Amino acid sequence: MRIATYNVNGVNGRLPVLVDWLETTTPDIVCLQELKAPDERFPIAAIQAAGYDAIWHGQKSWNGVAILARGTTPVETRRRLAGDPDDSHSRYLEAAVNGLLVGCLYLPNGNPLPGPKFDYKLRWIERFEALAAELFPLDEPVILAGDYNIIPTDADVYKPERWTDDALFAPEVREAFARLTGAGWTDALRTIHPDERVFTFWDYFRNAYTRDAGLRIDHLLLNRAAAGRLRNAGVDRSARALPKTSDHAPVWIDLG
């Protein structure tokens, strides 16, 4: 079974790329982030024509998450993080699909640092950690997949020294990611590629993709039940090279 995460950076503007990738690679479950569309503008007809059903949590112009499943309908289990009733951002969605529990997240960027956006990011991470602690001991396989907007280590960025003042690389957020893996969550991509330079995002500017000046900020974390089934993981880099594509590439795992 293949589970993927993909920040599409505008689901309607990138729809041809998304549909082509779905039809070419046929993942079983897909988590999408940064839909940048209200609920009524989610392109469900095109998604269904590609062989998928979906649930989604949209927001006009910003954010937005969706879970797609091939040949079946995801059963929604959670629509937002607890802990802040005033948080109106569409950043978390969770569903049961084919015996798995899948959480799709779009963690806040947090820039500029310092400032209220970074403070919001830290509060969001605290709420997410509380949910992760609740989900980890479940007997069923749990995958928390999405754009974490966290560069975990120096090995996950092309030039670490250039990112020391960025909210994606701040000590507080790297420590939070380390707490998740320290609590037992398996970083699937790094587990399969422990020593390789693996990126998931390349900026549109300064020819970043051609120079491979990238970051690893899209992650799939697995609880113990899911980690025991991990067989492979990778990045569909070719999607990033297409015209009118996202600045992220899809990241995937295979479970046995």
Automatic annotation (TrEMBL):
<dbReference type="GO" id="GO:0008311">
    <property type="term" value="F:double-stranded DNA 3'-5' DNA exonuclease activity"/>
</dbReference>
<feature type="binding site">
    <location>
        <position position="7"/>
    </location>
    <ligand>
        <name>Mg(2+)</name>
    </ligand>
</feature>
<dbReference type="Pfam" id="PF03372">
    <property type="entry name" value="Exo_endo_phos"/>
</dbReference>
<feature type="domain" description="Endonuclease/exonuclease/phosphatase">
    <location>
        <begin position="4"/>
        <end position="248"/>
    </location>
</feature>
<dbReference type="InterPro" id="IPR004808">
    <property type="entry name" value="AP_endonuc_1"/>
</dbReference>
<dbReference type="InterPro" id="IPR020847">
    <property type="entry name" value="AP_endonuclease_F1_BS"/>
</dbReference>
<comment type="similarity">
    <text>Belongs to the DNA repair enzymes AP/ExoA family.</text>
</comment>
<feature type="site" description="Important for catalytic activity">
    <location>
        <position position="218"/>
    </location>
</feature>
<protein>
    <submittedName>
        <fullName>Exodeoxyribonuclease III</fullName>
        <ecNumber>3.1.11.2</ecNumber>
    </submittedName>
</protein>
<feature type="active site" description="Proton donor/acceptor">
    <location>
        <position position="147"/>
    </location>
</feature>
<dbReference type="GO" id="GO:0003677">
    <property type="term" value="F:DNA binding"/>
</dbReference>
<keyword id="KW-0464">Manganese</keyword>
<dbReference type="InterPro" id="IPR036691">
    <property type="entry name" value="Endo/exonu/phosph_ase_sf"/>
</dbReference>
<keyword id="KW-0460">Magnesium</keyword>
<feature type="site" description="Interaction with DNA substrate">
    <location>
        <position position="248"/>
    </location>
</feature>
<dbReference type="GO" id="GO:0006281">
    <property type="term" value="P:DNA repair"/>
</dbReference>
<keyword id="KW-0479">Metal-binding</keyword>
<feature type="active site" description="Proton acceptor">
    <location>
        <position position="248"/>
    </location>
</feature>
<feature type="binding site">
    <location>
        <position position="247"/>
    </location>
    <ligand>
        <name>Mg(2+)</name>
    </ligand>
</feature>
<dbReference type="InterPro" id="IPR037493">
    <property type="entry name" value="ExoIII-like"/>
</dbReference>
<feature type="binding site">
    <location>
        <position position="248"/>
    </location>
    <ligand>
        <name>Mg(2+)</name>
    </ligand>
</feature>
<keyword id="KW-0378">Hydrolase</keyword>
<feature type="site" description="Transition state stabilizer">
    <location>
        <position position="149"/>
    </location>
</feature>
<feature type="active site">
    <location>
        <position position="106"/>
    </location>
</feature>
<feature type="binding site">
    <location>
        <position position="147"/>
    </location>
    <ligand>
        <name>Mg(2+)</name>
    </ligand>
</feature>
<feature type="binding site">
    <location>
        <position position="149"/>
    </location>
    <ligand>
        <name>Mg(2+)</name>
    </ligand>
</feature>
<feature type="binding site">
    <location>
        <position position="34"/>
    </location>
    <ligand>
        <name>Mg(2+)</name>
    </ligand>
</feature>
<dbReference type="InterPro" id="IPR005135">
    <property type="entry name" value="Endo/exonuclease/phosphatase"/>
</dbReference>
<dbReference type="GO" id="GO:0004519">
    <property type="term" value="F:endonuclease activity"/>
</dbReference>
<dbReference type="GO" id="GO:0046872">
    <property type="term" value="F:metal ion binding"/>
</dbReference>
